[in-house]
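To illustrate the input format used throughout this study, we show a single complete record. The first block contains the structure-token representation of the backbone; no residue identities are included at this stage. The design step must infer an amino acid for every position from geometry alone.
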């Protein structure tokens, strides 16, 4: 039997294509959810981030191994590469804004406070629904034509929307610390490198060398920004992929271990059990049960 691969799309249901550095797309939630009978099967996007605005209805979002319930009005924030799917209530309404990874990273480089918004999948109750709806209407109108100053106007509206999302999230989570400066930049570069190399056996010393810093500098930045060690970040990324393979592929436990760079399936099983609290087979059979 051929190995089942986690579907990867451009936009849902469309074959993957390369997108430009400034790619931005806005559509009604209804466009893809209604034809799919309000169920979007698990899939991923290699370099696209999503902001969902749920104006009416609700449902469940499955993001990797998490299940996140939501109800209107709210925002759903989905970083690139996260395997996600939805079960929407019938006639759920809203908008889906898609931003290329390159564009988002450029904006984050100019405003580091945006970075925590896309650190992990989340649902944010919207206490400023009318304001966000207004921003989305303005953005949709600007995206529909190419008047003079079009690119500048689109970016201004996108930044305005992200600022409102940030302020909404901050009001609801005022205690969340914001990482600033060179440490945050180094951790962001490290995470990007981990994304490229987590299936290899590269150690932290090799990652530090590739980033042109010492292991001590890398550890200091990770502990200050992410409050964990670089090794923990690497292990969590490998564990995340292991969970995805158990949930969304028909690879055997041994095949998954080899795919992730483990030379010994038994060692992979021990690694998984330490991180999840259950064996790979147990997790596959009951992924949402308590450990």
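Output of the design step:
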């Amino acid at each position: 039997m051929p190995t089942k691969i986690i579907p990867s799309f451009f936009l849902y249901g469309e074959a993957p294509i390369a997108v430009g550095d400034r790619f931005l797309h806005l559509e009604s939630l209804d466009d893809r959810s209604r034809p799919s009978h309000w169920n979007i099967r698990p899939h991923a996007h290699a370099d696209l981030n999503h902001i969902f605005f749920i104006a009416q209805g609700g449902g469940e979002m499955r993001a990797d191994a998490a299940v996140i319930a939501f109800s209107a009005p709210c925002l759903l924030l989905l970083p690139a590469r996260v395997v996600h799917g939805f079960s929407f209530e019938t006639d759920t309404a809203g908008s889906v804004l898609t931003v290329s990874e390159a564009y988002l990273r450029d904006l984050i480089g100019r405003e580091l406070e945006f970075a925590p918004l896309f650190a992990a999948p989340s649902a944010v109750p919207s206490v400023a629904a009318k304001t966000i709806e207004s921003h989305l209407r303005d953005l949709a109108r600007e995206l529909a034509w190419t008047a003079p100053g079009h690119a500048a106007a689109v970016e201004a509206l996108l930044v305005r929307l992200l600022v409102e999302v940030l302020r909404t999230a901050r009001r609801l989570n005022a205690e969340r610390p914001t990482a600033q400066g060179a440490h945050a930049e180094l951790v962001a570069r490290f995470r990007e490198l981990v994304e490229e190399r987590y299936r290899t056996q590269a150690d932290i010393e090799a990652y530090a060398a590739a980033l042109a810093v010492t292991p001590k500098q890398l550890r200091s930045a990770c502990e200050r920004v992410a409050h964990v060690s670089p090794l923990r970040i690497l292990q969590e990324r490998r564990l995340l992929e292991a969970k995805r393979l158990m949930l969304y592929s028909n690879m055997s436990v041994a095949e998954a271990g080899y795919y992730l760079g483990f030379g010994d399936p038994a060692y992979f099983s021990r690694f998984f059990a330490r991180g999840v609290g259950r064996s790979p087979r147990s997790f596959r059979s009951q992924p949402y049960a308590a450990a």
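Structural context for interpreting the output: The first strand starts at residue 24 and ends at 28. The chain is about 45% helix and 20% strand.
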